[in-house]
Amino acid sequence: MASHGVPRTSAPTERTPQAQAAELQKIQEYKDLVELVNTKIRQREYTADTLALISKLLKRNPEYYSIWNHRRLVLQQLFSDAQQAAQIKQPITSSNDTTSHPESTPDNATTDAAPATHPTQYPASEQIELLLISDLHFLVPLLREFPKCYWIWNHRQWLLQQATHLLPVPRVRRLWQEELGLVAKMLSMDSRNFHGWGYRRRVVAELESPELQGTSMAEDEFSYTTKMIKTSLSNFSAWHYRSKLIPRLLNERGASREERRKFLDSEFNLIQNALWTDSADQSLWFYHAFLMSELSTTPSTSSSSSSSSPSTSSSSAIIPDLSPTERVALLSRELDNIKEMLEDEDEDDTDTAPAERKYIYHALVQSTLEKQKWIRAVEAHAEPKAIADDKDEVQSWISKLRALDPFRMGRWDDVARQVDDLYA
Amino acid sequence: MDSLSGTFWDVVIAGTGLQQSLLALSLSRSGKKVLHADKNRYYGGFEAAFTLQEAEEWLNKGDEDSPLRPFRKASSVPQASLDGSNKAPKLSARAYSLALSPQLLYARSSLLQALISSKVYRQLEFLAVGSWWIYVPRDRSETGEALTSSHGELKKVPNGREDIFSDDLIDLRSKRSLMKFLKFVADYENMSEVWSDYASIPFSEFLRSRFGISMSLQAPLLALTLSPVSPSETPTSFALPRIARHLRSMGVFGPGFGAVLPKWGGGAEIAQVACRACAVGGGVYVLDEGISDVSNAPADQGEMPGQVGSSAHHPVAVTLSSGETVNTLWLVGSPDDIPKKSGTTRSGNEPESPTREEVTSKSISIVSSPLTGLFPQTAEAGPVPAGAVVVFPPETLLTEEKVAENQPPVYIMVHSSDSGECPSGQCILYSSVFISGDEGQATLDLAVNRLLSSLGEDPKSCLLWSMRYSQQGPSLHSGVVSSCEERSPGQIFFPRSSNGLAFDDELLNNVKCAYEKIVGSDNEDSSFMAFSDREVPTSYMSDEE
After folding, report:
1. Where is the composition biased (Low complexity) (chain A) (predicted)?
2. Is B300 exposed, middle or buried (0-12, 13-18, 19+ CB in 10 A)?
3. pLDDT, mean of residues B282-292
4. What is the pLDDT of residues A294-339, one digit of tens each?
5. Domains in chain B, please, with CATH?
6. How far apart are CA B295 and CA B274, in angstroms?
7. A226/B contact by beta carbon, under 8 A
8. Which DSSP string corresponds to A314-342?
9. Which member of B156, B434, B495, B508 lies 3.0 to 4.6 Å from B408 by CB, making a disulfide possible if both were Cys?
10. Nearest to B470 by CA among B150, B42, B71, B112
11. Distances (CA, A) of B2 to B6, B7, B386
12. d(Cα B255, Cα B243) in Å, to the nearest integer?
């Protein structure tokens, strides 16, 4: 299984007789450990000792997801132990405190905690914080070794959620902030790991949330995608994240129509630059397709769009109110750019890989069909001659596609029918 | 020390240069009795690294021919500080470790594999060699000013697709051409139909006519070849494997770089670590002891004690410079360490080997500032490199309006203080050009000056100290004569180390060739340099800490 050249880690394959004997020994130890942990859980021994056993087991096999549930059970018990211990001590000191701060409730330790007012709650939250931090640290070497194991990420997220419930805001923020650093480090080691990218989005969402008194990080995150793309053009996750950030970014900037237009152009420049550098890279064509889709919302919806309610309509698009004429102009420009890539290609140019030419022809066909739709939307009486020229060209591209990728004959037949319908 | 006189050895190795030291390492677990001698007081031979004081001593010996071979005409120049006070700052001599032949190691080099499989890598530390820079003169018509202060600037050589993507100065069409070329190089061995017709034609011509790559974009590609000679003398068959080596090494040890340098003096450090491994295995080391004579051992000593006639030839009697004579089955060294025939030490001028040897002018300069701009981080969260390569294409160094058709380029390897070769706040420039004599040194001076002025550091960087010398080595260009040569029974000769800027894997092949002659080639292939970990008594290591 090849996933962008970074394989999911599996057990070592080399086996000498000694290694085999050692492995059998290991398996027995492992089985004993599993048995021991399960017994402890059955007996509801949710103690620090059990936690240590669970750690030992998970280091050997982090894919055993039930054990992660056990771990959470034990941790929850340890949290509430810490809270109870604190509450027992509470009456001793809080008797004179409660009168001056009537709004504070002893059972809600999380929301507002100023050091001077709730001295007795600190041991509890500090103890919980220690437990959480040590568990977060426990996961780091595991993540290094098994970066693609779901349960580790899962557990990590659970720990941080617990922090949000149980700790004062500044401390939670600090934990999440450190989390962002960790994700950046992981992504620098394996920049296309989509677990890492997904996790980053969650961390950012958390840091942005009102619960943590956060503000939008769209600008920073957008710059981050630029940086990661410059590190590896093939980073589809980075391109994808970028496409998701753009609408929010523009809204938060309060971008004018003019600015949005400039923005769209600069994104097209970026992707053209990338495509001219390496048109064989599928990630780039995906982002190109995303930008093209911004030009090709179906004519019926956009014709009725009004600028009176930008807040509702602009949430999904770079430029919500592109006129059909503008769309045709932009589509033509892109068509010319892509055509130019073909210009210095020989028919049987061995330097250009078949995949590369396929992407180009495919983009040409799609863009032309889109353009034709919009031409029809602009004026009902499009010049028949121009259309006919176009049609020949499109059909020649489709026949190229048939030759380059015969396994998708059905798809090309379908595209050919679309062409026939459109020019009929 | 006890007298060596009359002792018997399986192998006597003469000289502690990289090849000899690696041979010693490869024999460290063979059970062979090894005597390893060096005529110098220091380890490393051509690859030695010196403190300032050692460098001065070495330079002062410069006129006695033999100790300096293959180095010639060396001199040092303490530089007055440029602020006019004329008081050169006092340099702490022991804070430096200046390498005579610094070489970078590509990540895919077989030497790195050998250092790992032989377990000695744990005693070495490797640092990234980051950016390649190319010197580009400013358009003269555009600046009417004199060529003094800022004659040109350094441009980063694109290291691959992302660099090409990010370079705003390359137009879209050229990006496409460059990428096509890079993709071709990645698999050039299987695409001989593209380049076989151009193999002996200059590489620049191949780039132009086959890939439509313009002059200005050829220079960075030529820089990656590290070719010592002019573009017109650099054929396609020479350039392609080297560019492929560069690109294939990129990212192996981390994003954004493809080569490393060993900390604390490069090859010298590897040589010392290799010798140490041989000493741990029982090898005996003698420094300051050259070989003055070689002859056949007397017939009555033809059979070595404890040896079951494993060798087809008579032992060799080796006389050391102390006058002691030892007997050995094998004597291995470079032509500079072993006298050719009985009773003569060789004079410098006679032709020594069938290999064409050529002279490279070199200089080492200590710079008063760290030149941080040359060492950008290799990638997001990647390491900060300790080495950089600056290339001056031939046309950028023409002093007069003379037409020098075959002017070679100048290479300057810049090592930051992270390399352990100088104190922090300074850096070292290792410059070389394939021109001999005063002209060579003048060209190097010009390049060094232009490098410093192009960086425009404030306060202006200046040279604190520099030394000049020239080095003889096998021509990189006439096809390296590889392997080891057995000129007479039991005597194995290594060719001199090349003057190349990157470690040449052929050198390791020479070592393997000698190893197989000594151990027997029927020995399993994998045993060469493949060792398991061994328990080292701590007492062995204590003096190295």
Report:
1. 105-119, 298-316
2. exposed
3. 92
4. 887 654 444 444 443 333 333 457 888 888 888 889 999 999 999 9
5. 8-51+265-354+481-527 (3.50.50.60), 58-95+126-158+357-474 (3.30.519), 161-249 (1.10.405.10)
6. 29
7. no
8. GGG-SSTT--HHHHHHHHHHHHHHHHHHH
9. B434
10. B71
11. 11, 11, 44
12. 18
If you average pLDDT over residues A274-301, what whole number do you get?
84
Q: A380: which residues sit within 8 A by CB, 6+ positions away?
A: none
* Residue B483 φ then ψ, to 5°: 65, -175
Q: Of B304, B334, B473, whose CA–CA distance to B13 is shortest?
A: B334
Element (H, E) at A189: helix A169-189
**Burial bucket for residue B482 (CB in 10 Å: 0-12, 13-18, 19+):** middle
Asked if B361 and B437 touch (Cβ cutoff 8 Å), the reply is yes
For residue A281, the one-letter residue type is D
pTM: 0.78
Query: Which of A4, A185, A231 best probes binding to B when mutated, by most B CB atoms within 10 angstroms?
Result: A231
ipTM: 0.73
DSSP class of residue B485 equals E
Q: What is the DSSP string of B182-198?
A: HHHHHTGGG-HHHHGGG
Q: Do A184 and B381 touch (CB under 8 A)?
A: yes
Q: Which two tokens stand for residue A249?
A: 């970014």
Alpha-carbon distance of A388 to B146, in angstroms, equals 62
Q: Is A365 exposed, middle or buried (0-12, 13-18, 19+ CB in 10 A)?
A: buried
Contact B261, B415 (CB under 8 A): yes
Residue spans of alpha helices (H) in A95-168: 97-100, 121-145, 150-166
Q: Which residues of A touch B175 (CB under 8 A)?
A: 273, 276-277
**What tokens appear for B323 in the block?**
């006058």
Size of interface A-B (CB pairs under 8 A): 49
Beta strands (DSSP E) in A250-332 are: none
Are the C-beta atoms of residues B11 and B33 closer than 8 Å to each other?
Answer: yes
Q: Is the omega angle on the peptide bond into residue A119 within 30 degrees of 0, that is, cis?
A: no
Residue with tokens 């093209």, as numbered in its chain? A292
